[in-house]
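Would you mind writing out the residues of a protein together with its fold in token form for me to study?
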Amino acid sequence: MYWTCNGREDIARVGDISIGGIFLETPLPREVGITTKLHFLVQEGQIRAEAVVRHAEEGRGLGLKFTALSDDDRPHLAALMSRLRSFSRDRGEHSGPH
């Protein structure tokens, strides 16, 4: 995930994602309420979004709430969420003793 905040650019690993927001694993502290811009490319296509920092876990990362997503990118996020839900269900069905 490529992201910018207060004129600073960085790359971070995604810890969790939902249709409403994302958790970025980053040691960089940010204040709650700060706006960020996110850019990521997944097999469903490019997704660009604006988000606001909702919570920060020192040394771990940032919980961001999406505040803006372009009409072009919205279907890509929906398709990504569908694929991730399917992946989670498939892993759940195949986990456990064999």
User: Anything to note?
Assistant: The chain has one helix and seven strands. The mean pLDDT is 88. The longest helix spans residues 74-94.
